[in-house]
Design a protein that fits this description.
The complex is a heterodimer.
Chain A lengths: L4 E6 L4 E6 L1 H7 L2 H9 L15 E4 L13 E6 L6 E6 L3 H8 L3 E5 L6 E6 L2 E6 L8 H11 L6 E5 L2 H4 L7 E3 L3 E3 L4 H7 L2 E7 L4 E2 L3 H16 L5 H4 L7 H6 L21 H7 L1 E5 L9 E11 L4 E9 L1 H7 L8 H14 L3 H16 L5 H4 L9 H12 L4 H6 L3 H8 L7 E2 L2 E2 L7 H9 L10 H8 L6 H21 L11 H10 L7 H21 L12 H4 L9 H19 L4
Parallel strand pairs in A: 1-6, 7-12
Antiparallel strand pairs in A: 1-2, 3-4, 3-6, 4-5, 7-8, 9-10, 9-12, 10-11, 14-15, 15-16, 17-18
Chain B lengths: L1 E6 L10 H11 L1 E2 L7 E3 L9 E3 L8 H5 L5 E3 L5 E3 L9 H5 L6 E3 L4 E3 L6 H4 L6 E6 L8
Antiparallel strand pairs in B: 1-9, 3-4, 5-6, 7-8
Classes of the chains: A alpha+beta, B alpha+beta.
């Protein structure tokens, strides 16, 4: 068994200690599992922005050792939901944490001044960073890369102005274009006066049995680059789904009012690739390369033929949130808005979902030009959306300040809760394929489509004889499996490569003796149950989950979904979760 | 003719670092990018603009010329031979390499010398680097 260490940071006193946490990695594998175990100690009533509320970053045993184990988990109390906050990001962070010698970093307390956290091997420093105040997430990275010289590869995590304003939908940006996107980690970092974390180091693990290690590594590498298992992700990427989903009535359009978008071709994966794709890039140690970087060349002074070129990454969720769901069918308009969102550092799904709510609230008369200070808010009006974003970023008035607090907050204040499309207060992701997509968002431990892939189950349901209850059981099993993958912090795009058997083989190479598929399965159930228990401690109740009423009216890939069906399946899911909870006794 | 490491399609690089991992794994038996004898550089805000710095196996290597104690000597097929016993940890070889291709081992305080073995090319998913036949008698490469 290798040794695992945590850097435990107290911002209030600007000190840190190195703690051995090997026992946690032995029991809970890493990533999501270890973060959950560390998070278990918090006072459930703590305010998300309280100094004592922890931020816990964890990688896994495969990080920087085997390919495509590229992610890092961050856990915190979500200021958006008031419940468990967990986000995952790629980039170089997992590699840099490993190189610094820390598989976990816990940050508590509050810095007395805006600061950056600098970690280089065992050296920890808190540096005053007043000059970075209000700086965009993109500019901050350029400056920090110049300022912090390191002998080693670095990773830079930072917040944009949205996080500094404590927006509960602010993200943290990792390296050039990856994000801890959902549930408001940006605001939590802002509340601690942390603008950025810069991390690097030169530590490594020795390979105990080079022959076995290299054989295993080559097998994994070949299945990534030499088979079709990950092809779609580096080909057109997730936007390959835009047009097919629309044809199946599964692409959320105009605030989830329908699943067909008449201009899907204008924002399809093919269109983005042909018009904008500069190239695909990769997270550190992933030979797949699924990051799609778009460029947009714009003339900013026609009289003098002055041009600028912006560069921004895109994927399905961003295209849905700023394209179809706002009725924008022009890829250029989508990119311009995304670039602004990227600079401010909002979670793109939540900000887009909140603007979609605003469009509908305006149509229904709940919002007027008095709120918007003269702007008429219509679906499809990208120019007005840009003006709105600028007003939000300058705290133009109370209404614009509220817009960066999320759709549910706005709906509770201004009305329209039936069309604030959120589950567990988290704005919904980009699939309306049927009952199980909604059920997945609602019951998922992160309220993410990635928790249990309900959208994928909906598509399998077509022409199937299985009952809803049976499909809910399948979804639950998938949720448990994914908790385990998220504990290894393998990119979920590689889920078909890392089968349970392959995972056990890898763990054994790293000294996890006797780790067989049964033990892996047991660990997965235990971690999933711990997360549910934690969510309940923080106030989560299955009985409070609801289907936003407007969704009953919209046809999905699997037809209409009723609240009754939704409530019934939430109960089925709850029973399955309760059975697992007994394992913890 | 000798086979030497070359960048043949810089623009295809996705920045995955698989080459650097392969080099460290093979020659040092460790999991890291920091023991590799080549470097993939990336730039802030411009993900996608990678620069690849492999050892070019120079005819008259600047690194060897800079070494004050003869720890680095040119090999007939290109590249240099390194004798660690002679190394005085002065870092001059790394400074002399204009391409920043020669890497420094911060642990041993010695250069990391490329063996021109080509293992890195076997782990490049997009054939960015390759072992290429180089005519050593020509002064200007094609």
């Amino acid at each position: 068994m290798k040794n695992f260490y945590m850097l435990d940071i107290d911002l209030t006193t600007a000190t840190s200690t190195k703690v051995e946490v090997t026992h946690l990695f032995e029991r809970y594998i890493g990533g999501s599992g270890v973060a959950t175990a560390l998070f278990d100690e918090i006072d459930p009533t703590i305010d998300a922005f309280a100094p004592d509320a922890p931020i816990i970053l964890v990688t896994g045993p495969f990080s920087s050792v085997f390919p495509v184990a590229t992610k890092t988990v961050v856990m915190y109390k979500s200021p958006l939901t008031g419940n468990l906050g967990e986000s995952h990001a790629g980039g170089r962070l997992a590699m840099a944490m490993y190189s610094a010698g820390f598989h976990a970093i816990r940050i508590r307390g509050k810095a007395q001044f805006p600061c950056t956290i600098e970690i280089d091997d065992d050296d920890f420093k808190l540096n005053s960073a007043s000059s970075l105040r209000g700086m965009s997430a993109l500019a901050a990275e350029r400056i920090l890369r110049d300022h912090y010289k390191s002998d080693y590869k670095r990773s830079i995590v930072r917040i944009g102005p949205a996080g500094e304003r404590l927006s509960p939908i602010a993200c943290a940006t990792v390296d050039s274009s990856r994000h801890f996107g959902r549930l408001g980690i940006g605001g939590v970092l802002g509340s601690k006066n942390v603008k950025a974390i810069v991390i690097s180091g030169g530590k490594y693990w020795k390979i105990d049995d080079p022959k076995a290690f290299n054989d295993y590594y080559s097998k994994l590498y070949q299945s990534v680059v030499g088979s079709d298992l990950m092809k779609k992700y580096h080909d057109l990427g997730t936007p390959v789904n835009v047009v097919p989903l629309s044809k199946l009535n599964g692409l959320p359009t105009r605030n989830f009012s329908q699943g067909f978008f008449e201009n899907a071709a204008g924002i399809s994966g093919e269109t983005f690739a042909e018009r904008h794709l500069a190239q695909q890039t990769a997270c550190a140690h992933c030979p797949c390369g699924c990051i799609h970087m778009a460029t947009l060349r714009e003339c900013f002074d026609p009289d003098q033929h002055m041009y600028k070129t912006i560069k921004v990454s895109y994927d399905h969720e961003l295209i849905f949130a700023w394209g179809s769901n706002l009725s924008i069918g022009d890829s250029e308009e989508v990119l311009k808005l995304l670039y602004y969102v990227e600079k401010q550092g909002w979670d793109a799904i939540s900000m887009g979902g909140t603007i979609a709510w605003a469009c509908e609230a305006y149509h229904n008369g709940m919002l007027t030009t008095e709120h918007s200070d003269g702007l008429v808010i219509n679906f499809g009006d990208a120019e007005t959306f840009m003006k709105m974003l600028k007003r939000i970023s300058t705290s133009h008035n109370e209404f614009y300040c509220d817009l960066e607090k999320g759709a549910v907050f706005c709906a509770e204040k201004y009305g329209g809760k039936n069309f604030a499309i959120a589950f567990g207060k988290n704005e919904a992701p980009g699939y309306m394929t049927g009952l199980h997509s909604y059920l997945g968002y609602a019951t998922g431990v992160r309220h993410s489509h990635l928790d249990s892939a309900g959208y994928s189950i909906d598509q399998k349901k077509i022409n199937s004889k299985k009952t809803d209850n049976e499909w809910t059981k399948s979804m639950f099993d998938e949720a448990v499996l994914r908790v385990m993958l998220n504990s290894l912090v393998i990119c979920l795009f590689a889920r078909n490569i890392y089968t349970p058997q392959i995972i056990c083989e890898g763990l054994q190479l790293l000294g996890y003796d006797g780790f067989d598929e049964q033990r892996l399965q047991e660990a997965a159930h235990a971690i999933h149950a711990m997360k549910i228990r934690q969510k309940k401690k923080l106030g989560f109740k299955f009985s409070e989950l609801y289907l936003p009423a407007r969704l009953e009216k919209a046809a999905t890939t699997c037809g209409h979904v009723t609240s009754q069906q939704f409530d019934e399946q939430v109960k089925v899911y709850e029973e399955l979760a309760e059975t697992d909870l007994k394992l913890l006794d | 003719m000798s086979k030497l490491l070359r960048v043949i399609a810089r623009e295809h690089c996705i920045g995955c670092y698989s080459c650097m991992y392969a080099c460290s794994r093979t020659w040092f038996k460790v999991s890291t990018v920091e023991k590799a004898a080549l470097r993939i550089k990336n730039y802030a805000g411009a993900e996608g603009a990678f620069s690849i710095r492999p050892c070019y196996g120079c005819l008259d290597p600047d690194c060897a010329r800079a070494c004050p104690v003869g720890a680095l000597t040119p090999r007939p097929d290109g590249g240099v031979k390194f004798e660690p016993d002679k190394c005085v940890n002065c870092h001059k070889c790394v400074e002399a390499c204009i391409a920043n291709a020669m890497q420094w081992d911060y642990e041993t305080k010695m250069p990391i010398v490329c063996h021109q073995c080509g293992i890195c090319t076997q782990f490049c998913p997009n054939q960015v680097i390759a072992m290429v036949d180089i005519d050593r008698t020509r002064k200007v490469e094609p």
